[in-house]
Design brief:
This protein is of the alpha/beta class and about 230 residues long. The chain has a single domain, classed as 3-Layer(aba) Sandwich (Uracil-DNA Glycosylase, subunit E), CATH 3.40.470. The chain has 8 helices and 6 strands, in the order ααββααβαβαββαα. Strands 1-3-2-4-6-5 form a 6-stranded mixed beta sheet, with helices on both faces.
Length: about 230
Amino acid sequence: MAPSPRARALWALGAEISGCRACPRLVAWREAVAASPRAAFAGETYWGRPVPGFGDPAATLAVVGLAPAAHGANRTGRMFTGDRSGDWLFGALHRAGYASQPTSRSAADGLELCGAWVTAAVHCAPPANRPDPAERRACAPFLARELALLSDVQVVVALGGLACSAVAALFGCSPRPRFAHLAEHPLPGGRTLVCSYHPSQQNTFTGRLTEDMLDAVFARARALGA
């Protein structure tokens, strides 16, 4: 079956994202990381470029993280793939029926998403996992175009406070939504923003985020029509 016009448009946007060199600090960092793999990944060729979103073009759920991990998506070329955060995220998406398998090891591992799209507010791996405000602003139009193309999306799940702020700014929310785990906020066009703690090791190792808490986020997304 030929891809739909929406799928082709999302693929073209992904190709544009992958070629972006707008932020010198991020370009230098992602390429430096790619040139010096961790010992655990010795011999692997890192992606080392901006990482586009991926998933089902007919998604009713969009999951927005902050940015690719240096040795996760920056290595594999697919969002939340190849790191512990991805293990948590795709495990939860699989349990909720959005993912074909509970793990995401490489871009060629056969994972498929059904009804979900996974992306980030910033598409390059940043130093210390923290893009600066100018870098977040520079990347914001990509997320805006992505969510405009994903016209069936009913629920946007923001992983972490910075992702929540990025989505709120994109939709012009005023006052700015309060971030808290499982907090909900209406978005223009009848969509709903659902907030979640990010599945980073800082949160999962300390118990701030548990599997049950993450499952509750996607159960709520289902209940809201995603």
